[in-house]
Hints:
The protein is an alpha/beta fold. The protein has a single domain, classed as Alpha-Beta Barrel (TIM Barrel). Helix content is 44%, strand content 10%. β2 (92-96), α4 and β3 form a beta-alpha-beta unit. The structure holds L-rhamnitol and zinc ion. Residues 41, 46, 60, 134, 186, 227, 229, 260, 287, 295, 327 line the site of L-rhamnitol. Zinc ion (ZN) binds next to loops. Its main location: cytoplasm.
Amino acid sequence: MKEEQIKKEFAAAKEKYAALGVDVEKAIEKLNNVSISIHCWQSDDVSGFENPEGELTGGIQATGNYPGKANTIDELKNDIEKVLELIPGKHRLSLHAIYGDFGGEFVDRDQIEPKHFQTWMDWAKKTGAKLDFNSTFFSHPKSGNYSLSSFDPEIRNFWKEHLRRCRRIAAEMGRQQGDACIHNIWVHDGEKDKTVSRIQHRELLKESLDEVMTEKISTDYLKDSVECKLFGIGSESYVVGSHEFYMGYAVKNNMLLTLDAGHFHPTEGIADKISSMLLFVPEVNLHVSRPERWDSDHVVILNDALLELSQEIVRSGQMEKVHIGLDYFDASINRIGAYVVGIRSTQKAMLQALLEPTEKLREYEKRDNNFQRMAYLEELKAMPWNAVYNYYCLQQGVPVGDEYIQEIEKYESEVTSKR
Length: 419
Ligand code: RNT
Ligand code: ZN
């Protein structure tokens, strides 16, 4: 797209939005402050570097075998750097514990230390992408149906030690980057079929978490967040860390709650949960994902669910308390493309929400003018928000419109197809 054309379309859009009382420059500025936490695991189908040949367990699945996945830390870094070149704004990288730099040695989960992530912290310093962290309870011989909630005290101890170490690693990341690292805790524990000892396992999960959390770490460095789930492959009937479990846990312990778009009943969205949870937990962490009929972790696209979520984040007036992280892994398409589409779509949804004349809509609402509210919400859908996004990309010196597609094709022919 020609620069002149982009500017012309932006000027026209600006005028249209101004007529609704919306300041587009302000919206761009706010969008530019939205740091998306990019998940490292789309790049290599959740393999990691602890035991890359190992099986992915824990009830999650990356389907497809598109060529070019990242096999080494360097390949992963290159891929993420390429992604960062193709999107506007400053973003974060979310690492799982199995993505450490183990120097070719096997380091078990109860042995990992900050030093195994030092090269990542150095990379973060260099690129400016701050880090978030995730403990990894899945894909390990000691994580069958149950880990932190196992009846076997030795298994529980092993995973408690893992969690303890992950909190310290995340805190060290937070310290080095001068900004709290969000440490996401997702525990796959559960069972395929009708489980009788539901409360017993939940008691054990609570007990294990409580014990590890007795180690107090400043939220200047570390923010722990707990992620619930309804079911997984092989845990269809029972997941210990259900919504009620973690909602209760987060509220009781004043910690963050992670809402994953795929972790509820099929027609239940996470958008409407934001305004409730913000009243009871200090901050909310999101795993933006796209469930297609189940928690399938498809690439995020600009759909109604994403737009509703963005609207709720913006309308809450507490954007700084909602952390946007991505969580999907599609192994059937170009993985860099999967990242870029997901990130750009998330930004487009956020931008649309930021371009809403919310006060105007609230006025109609107060007066019970609900036809007018509905009509404006419909009109807004066809407003030229994309011209604003294109202009933002131009400003930031990244590809505009569909230009990123050829960049990805080039990277594929020069880099990923040769792996
Ligand atoms: C699984 C959870 C979890 C994982 C990642 C890899 O259903 O969503 O967040 O996807 O930790
Ligand atoms: Zn998730």
